[in-house]
Amino acid sequence: MKTKKSLAFLLSFCLLISCFMVGVPISAAETEQTTEAQTDYGLMDTADGSAILHCFNWSYNNIKANLKDIAKAGYTAVQTSPVQPPKDYNSSWTDLGGQWWKMYQPLSLSICENGNSWLGSKSELKALCEEADKYGIKVVVDIVANHLANNGTDGGTYDYLNSGVPSDLKNSDYYHTNNIR
Questions:
Q1: Listed residue (141, 57, 135, 150) closest to 158, CA to CA
Q2: How far is it, in rounded angstroms, from Cα 50 to Cα 45?
């Protein structure tokens, strides 16, 4: 039970900090270091009130390669698809058309570090964030925090978790069933 409360607290804390940071202006020292790109495009210092481009299914490298055009178009933030390891990742799938939903069936609650993601690696996400900062563009990451991948059946309870979900997240106390069918 203590682990469940700790996990719930950690997720709540991360969500709270993320929401808070979106509206927090950068420091005075950072304001003085405004880049040429920020000046050229007149972008804001916060994502609060931003024009957000939802880069649905774009890889981190593709977003990064298009930042100049994104800034020119007036966007002040970009949103990625979920950054967690997706269900049934297969590197040979280059067109996610009918598979996009698998990114919304994550295997864990952390950023995908092993490269088994259609979006890219953790280091590519970091490089995207660093480059976006040069243009004054904020990066918003989609996080699926309310469920994990199932095993491919219609079952929506703890008993039907995907085998790729880490054992430390396979605790029946973490899950509830609403019995809606």
A1: 150
A2: 10
Alpha carbon 128 to chain centroid distance?
12
Write the burial class of residue 132 (CB in 10 Å: 0-12 exposed, 13-18 middle, 19+ buried): buried
Bridge partners (DSSP) of residue 141 are: 80
- Backbone torsions φ then ψ of 54, nearest 5 degrees: -85, 105
For residue range 44-101, list pLDDT tens digits in order.
555 566 689 999 989 999 999 999 999 999 999 999 999 998 888 877 777 776 778 8
The answer for residues whose C-beta is within 8 angstroms of residue 103's C-beta and 6 or more apart is: 57, 81, 82, 84, 86, 96, 117, 118, 119
Q: Residues for the chain: how many in total?
A: 181
Distance CA 176, CA 34 (A): 48
DSSP letter for 79, please.
E
DSSP state of 168: G
Burial class (CB in 10 A: 0-12, 13-18, 19+), 6: exposed
Query: Would you say the pTM of this structure is higher than 0.90?
Result: no
